[in-house]
Structure formats: structure tokens, C-alpha cells
């Protein structure tokens, strides 16, 4: 049991940012016991870690990131989604068949993740089971709370990156799920069909069945790019929208929590279906910009009370920073407002911070806030390197972290009560 | 006379990036003598600084930045231009009347600029002459080559930040110009009417006359925001477009080089006028996003052979990095292509790098390239902190610098042949 002392900031809702200057947040058995002006009587004798004038925020939640793509972040930004997959992504992911390469690459990814403000993540690996274990080992060791998905894909992808035999793919995925649940404490498996175009109906059926049996969460991609959406319509002529194609295959929140990355072009019907089924949106503004996909209507999703968080989507996105994802979300919402729809007002700091903490955190349970009962993920920020001549409020200091911070500003990091950095 | 050895990268044109791996670039009296595979016979005995596997690029050119706004970078991003000026900018700029505050703030700005990849900049100060000298002193001492403008403004601005007496304002500006030319070697004055809405016709007339007498360059803002443009139409009913309003007041390239920031909404007539008059565009993608202004058609300007460079526009923009300006330019060009006009294809790495070096550099003369005869501005980049498991080409390494670099990657910096960092 311990308390952290500093300027404490967290979201209660998308519109309400709570700031407790010189406050205390208490952790007992990895769970927050709330935020206080002074230490309550029953906690008088607990250890207090005094972070002084620093900011203390909940850990940030990355709802969508591809670990094997970290290697080519900031490269190959000259194509749209489908060409980008064939030209850059699939050839790189194929390399993870070799464990030596996978180990080198995943160690680099996990090391940068450690020094980022992220405390929880939904991670795509590749279809290689051995390399996926390796990634899970590294994350487990680091203390990261993560859902990691061995990717499934069996069509419309190069021979060298295709699961030829569906029953064998399902068997292997099941075995990986079973072993992972036994083996890891921090890391959990997540069912991960790449996306409709690269998954046959038979494969989807098997994965849906697996979700039904295990109750595990699932992750995939939805309505990212116009050409992709058109392709899905051709592949699934029976479906009324892309989300419906997942739904008919039993992978749209039917048997467990489900998060869909992007949702740039979700129709009214798709939005309704996501809402009914409790499907989470992983809004990935940087990736949607880099791959020329467009701008997702995040404001609309928030106003419609969809479950929504943010994702870096490496390497469609180039930055691992979830602060950058918040800033990007605000920035593209302004361009959406200006260029597309003046009824959708730009996102606020409050909304972006909510999505990056409590909004995405909900996918992991009670995560992403310091309210009593929430798992204790915390990031301590030291902003002294960002010089300024004037006085700044605590809220302004948070705003600067969103726009200007990098790994140097991450002073300490706690995940479920454990100090990681 | 000396040579730098490393992987040398520079633009010849907007479409042509030249890469000389393990090459030499030679500096004589501050001027590049060209790039070579091996040292030519006549240079056999000169000093060679060997930067090994590092990248060597021309210094980057920031065509538009407000020094006094550095203090609130990353803050107050919730308004459009005109409200943002009144709410955040003018109150902050007013503080520079106090030299103690100005010194503290400008030292911070100049220190960050030193460690950035920028070697040349067009800088707005405030209307305060004493503080402007102070900024110029600091830049001069650092070795930065910069145009610095004491801002002129006499209407539609708060009392506390208005030049009440036009003749006195012109007299003071003239005196400042004369003193500056005598006093500084690296830093030059630039004529700086804030923008049409805050400058009376009389003030503009005086400044135009001053440009005529001195041949100095001028800088201002153009067609940034729809409300601003509408306001200019109301203020200048005789003008056919915003650019024409400057032109009729003799400040649109008539008497000297002129750079206009933004040009988000320039009409066909305005574009033609810029081309005829040789007016430079300072494309500021980050600021145009943060202030919800829109996306400037940079690709079109390049194709029409307008003179164009990039600007950070602190604190409409929040990052001082010109690499970030390149990445932002590419990113918003993709959104412009997707959302507005599929005929304007996204900017390439070549085009963004050109704008950030040789394109903007032209405003300073033969600047922004390593071709023979160019002033020797160079930045040496160490990218070893950005881990990767695979082999990377030199071009890919440059691409990563554009998307991922920060001040830690700036290994050395030369301005006009002098080593600054």
C-alpha cells in the first residue's frame, strides 16, 4: 500500500477532467483507493512517494498497435492501405518466422514501449506462433498489461504469409490461447483475424467459435479505406456493411469484447451495430493520415456514446506516443470540421485525454482513471525540460505534455500498482 | 577550408534528391565547393571532419516563426485565428515590453533553435524595438542567419499593443533598420507589417517606402483563415483579393523580396500575382491545422513553380522542428487529396525536403543545397538512437529523420561554414 503525491489529473468523463493540485492518490493491492487533498486518517502511515511539482496521470491505453511494424515506423508512407500492405507490411511481417529476427525486433519495440506513457495495449503480432510467444514473454517480463494477438489470415495475402490449412490454423491458435492463459500473468491472448479480406469464412467461423468457448476479446480492422470497403462488399455480397460482415461471421461483439481499428467510413447502420454490440472503436488518427485513409468522425462517436479509445497503429502511425495520438486526434478533428462537416466541432483536450485513458481503458476493465476501484496505472511526468518564461497552470502543463512531450518527460510509470520505470 | 565526410543528401530540384554515400562536401570561405566521391586533387591536404555513417544534409530553413510565441507553444489550441490572436497572442506579446521578460523568453527560444536542425529563419519579434534588439543580439551571438522583424501594427489590436502614432512608428522602424544593418553580421532586419487587418494604409505606405529605400525583404501573412479574408475584403473594398490589397499598398514584392505565410485560400488571381511578383509562400501546415484554418495547396504551388518553403509558425504551430514541418506538409497534403481534390496528389519526401531546404533557402540567396556556390549550412544527423532490426538505405534513414527525429539526433550544425553545435 502506498500513495503518490503530486499534481493529479484524470478523467471522470469525456467532458470532465479532474485536477487535484498537490494531491495524493492511494494504491492498495494494485487498485486505486481514490484521490485526496490530504492523506485520510486510515492511510496516515503508508509510504508516500513524493513527486513534488510533477504531474501524475493515469497510464495511457493504446487500443491498436502492430508490434512487428515498429521496425519500419516512419518509412513507406507513399501508399494507401492495400498497396502498403503488399509492398511494405507483408514482406516485413514475413521476417518474424525467423526467431532471431523476431527477438531483435520485438526487444526494440518493447524497450521503446517501456519508456513511453503507455501502460496497456492491444497488440497485433504476426501469424507466427513462436514469435508471438516471444513477444508475450518480453511484455510479461517488462510488466506491461497487454492483449496480444497471434494474427490469423488465410487468403488474399502472399503465399509466404498465409495459413494454408484452416483447421490447422484454428488448432494452433487454440493451443496458443490455452498455453498463453496458463503461462502469463500480465499478458493475455486476443483473437485476431487480420481483417475480412484476408480471412475466409471458414477461418472466421473457427475464430468466432473460439471466442464463444473462451470469452476472450477480439480485435480487427474496420472501414479504414474506400478501396478496402469496396473489396469487402465484393467479398461479402450478403452483408449490408463492413461491420455486418463481421457480425454475420460472429466476430462483432457477439461472444466477447471486441475492438475495431479505424472506423473512418462507418455508415449509420454500422455505427448503430457497434453501439448495440458494444464494439469499441480504436481511433488511429496518425495512421489514417499517413495512409491517406481519411479522418474518422471521433466527435460523433463520442457524442453517440460509442465506446472509443485511441491507437497509435504502428506503422501506419509512425509514433509510439499516445500523447501524440491525442494531439493528432484533436488536429485532424479540426480539419474534419473545416473541410467536411462544420456540425462536428473539433475535439477538446478533455475528450482527447479521456479517449487516451478512461475511454480506451474500459476495454481492460476498470482502467484509465484514478477513481476508487480502478486498477492503479500511473505515469509521472516531468516537464522541466520544456522551458517557459511564464507561470503555467497544471492544466496548461498537461496540454503541453500532449503536444510537446517525448520519452524524456516520462519520469516514472506504474502498471497495476507495480513501478516499471 | 575543410571537408565533411559522411552520407550526403541534398535537393537539386523539387523532384530530385541527390544522395552521395560516403561522400565529401567541401567548404571554402563559407561556400560549398560541391560534393565528391573522393577528395579532388586540389583539396587533398584540407582538414576532413569524418562523420562516418552519419547523414549530412543542408541546414533547414524556417520561413515563418514568431519568437515571442515560443513561450506558449502547445497551449491555447482551442480557437481560430482572430480569437486566438486576441485571447492568447496579443496578451503574451505585450509582455515583451518588459526587457527582463523578453530576455528570459528569447533566451529559451534561441537555445531551442540552436539545437534544432534550423540554420536560417524569418522571424517575427513584437512591436517592441528594445526587445527586438535583444532577440537579434542573442541570434547574432549564436551564429544564426536570420531575418528578424520588429512588428508594425496600428489598428484593430488592443491599446496595449498598438503603435498610436504612425509617423513615430515609421521613424522608429527606420532607426531600428539603420542600426541593425550597422550592428549585426548574421542577422538582418526585415520589414514586418503584421497583416492587413492590423495595419492602416498610412502605416503600409510608410513601410513600402522604407522597403523602396532599403531594398530589404518583407514578411507578412496572407489568406490564412476565411474570417480573416472576409475582414480584409471589408477593410479594402477596392482590392480584388487579399494579395491585391498588399500589392496596392506596395508590399507584395514590388520593392524587395517578400514572403507571405499561409496562403491557404489563395485565389487563382492571387496565385498569379504571387508568381508575377516573385512572392514566396511560407507553407505552415501545423499551424494551419492547429488553428483550424485549413490545408494550403502546396502541391499546386510547387507545380505552378511558385517560390515556396516551409514554416513552423510557432505558436500556431507547436513544434520548432523543421523536420516535423516536412512530415506535417506531407500528412496534410494526403488529407487534402482525400477530402478536397484528388487531382492534387500528396507531396513526396523529395518535395517536402526541397521545400524545407532549397525552396525556402532561396529567400536567403544561394542557400539550402550543397551544390557548388551555395552557402555552407549543414546539419549532421545521428540516427543511432532510433533502433531498427533491418538494414536501411540512406534514403530510408532520411525519411525516418523527417518523421521521427528530435533534437537528440542533431549531432552537429554548420551555418555559413561556422560550426555552431
UniProtKB/TrEMBL annotation, chains A, B:
Cofactor, free-text remark: Binds 1 zinc ion per subunit.
Pathway: Purine metabolism; guanine degradation; xanthine from guanine: step 1/1
Any single Pfam family the record assigns to this protein: Amidohydro_1
Cofactor(s) demanded: Zn(2+)
Record flagged with keyword Hydrolase: yes
Keywords, sorted A to Z: Hydrolase, Metal-binding, Zinc
GO CC annotations, alphabetized: cytosol
GO biological process: guanine catabolic process
Record-linked SUPFAM superfamilies: Composite domain of metallo-dependent hydrolases, Metallo-dependent hydrolases
Keyword Mitochondrion attributed: no
InterPro entries the UniProt entry points to: Amidohydro-rel, Guanine_deaminase, Metal-dep_hydrolase_composite, Metal_Hydrolase, Metallo-dep_hydrolases
Described function: Catalyzes the hydrolytic deamination of guanine, producing xanthine and ammonia.
Family per similarity comment: Belongs to the metallo-dependent hydrolases superfamily. ATZ/TRZ family.
Name listed for the protein in its UniProt record: Guanine deaminase
The species this protein was found in: Velocimicrobium porci
Amino acid at each position: 500500500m502506498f500513495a503518490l503525491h503530486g499534481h493529479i489529473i484524470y478523467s471522470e468523463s469525456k467532458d470532465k477532467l479532474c485536477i487535484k493540485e498537490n494531491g495524493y492518490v492511494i494504491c492498495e493491492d494494485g487498485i486505486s483507493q481514490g484521490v485526496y487533498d490530504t492523506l485520510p486518517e486510515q492511510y496516515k502511515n503508508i509510504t508516500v512517494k513524493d513527486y513534488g511539482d510533477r504531474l501524475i496521470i493515469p497510464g495511457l491505453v493504446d487500443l491498436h498497435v502492430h508490434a512487428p511494424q515498429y521496425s519500419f515506423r516512419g518509412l513507406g508512407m507513399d501508399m494507401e492501405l492495400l498497396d502498403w500492405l503488399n509492398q511494405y507490411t507483408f514482406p516485413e511481417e514475413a521476417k518474424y518466422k525467423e526467431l532471431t529476427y523476431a527477438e531483435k525486433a520485438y526487444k526494440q519495440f518493447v524497450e521503446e514501449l517501456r519508456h513511453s506513457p503507455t501502460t496497456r495495449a492491444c497488440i497485433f503480432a504476426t501469424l507466427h506462433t513462436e514469435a508471438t510467444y516471444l513477444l508475450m514473454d518480453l511484455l510479461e517480463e517488462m510488466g506491461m498489461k497487454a492483449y496480444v494477438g497471434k494474427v490469423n489470415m488465410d487468403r488474399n495475402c502472399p503465399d509466404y504469409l498465409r495459413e494454408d490449412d484452416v483447421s490447422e490454423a484454428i488448432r494452433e491458435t487454440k493451443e496458443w490461447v490455452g498455453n498463453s492463459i496458463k503461462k502469463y500473468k500480465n499478458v493475455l491472448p486476443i483473437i485476431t483475424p487480420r481483417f475480412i479480406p484476408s480471412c475466409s469464412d471458414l477461418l472466421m467461423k473457427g475464430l468466432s467459435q473460439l471466442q464463444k468457448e473462451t470469452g476472450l476479446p477480439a480485435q480487427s480492422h474496420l472501414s479504414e479505406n474506400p478501396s478496402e470497403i469496396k473489396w469487402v462488399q465484393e467479398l461479402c455480397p450478403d452483408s449490408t456493411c463492413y461491420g455486418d460482415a463481421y457480425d454475420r461471421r460472429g466476430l462483432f461483439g457477439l461472444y466477447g469484447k471486441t475492438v475495431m481499428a479505424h472506423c473512418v467510413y462507418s455508415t449509420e447502420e454500422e455505427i448503430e451495430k457497434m453501439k448495440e454490440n458494444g464494439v469499441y472503436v480504436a481511433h488511429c488518427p496518425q495512421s489514417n493520415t499517413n495512409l491517406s485513409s481519411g479522418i474518422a468522425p471521433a466527435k460523433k462517436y463520442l457524442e453517440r456514446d460509442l465506446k472509443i479509445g485511441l491507437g497509435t497503429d504502428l506503422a501506419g502511425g509512425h509514433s509510439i506516443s499516445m500523447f501524440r495520438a491525442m494531439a493528432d486526434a484533436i488536429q485532424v478533428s479540426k480539419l474534419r470540421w473545416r473541410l467536411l462537416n462544420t456540425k462536428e466541432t473539433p475535439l477538446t483536450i478533455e475528450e482527447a485525454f479521456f479517449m487516451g485513458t478512461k475511454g480506451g481503458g474500459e476495454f481492460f476493465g476498470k482502467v484509465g482513471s484514478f477513481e476508487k476501484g480502478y486498477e492503479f496505472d500511473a505515469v509521472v511526468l516531468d516537464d522541466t525540460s520544456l522551458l517557459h518564461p511564464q507561470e503555467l497552470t497544471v492544466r496548461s502543463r498537461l496540454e503541453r505534455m500532449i503536444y510537446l512531450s517525448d520519452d524524456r518527460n516520462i519520469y516514472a510509470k506504474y502498471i497495476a500498482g507495480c513501478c516499471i520505470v
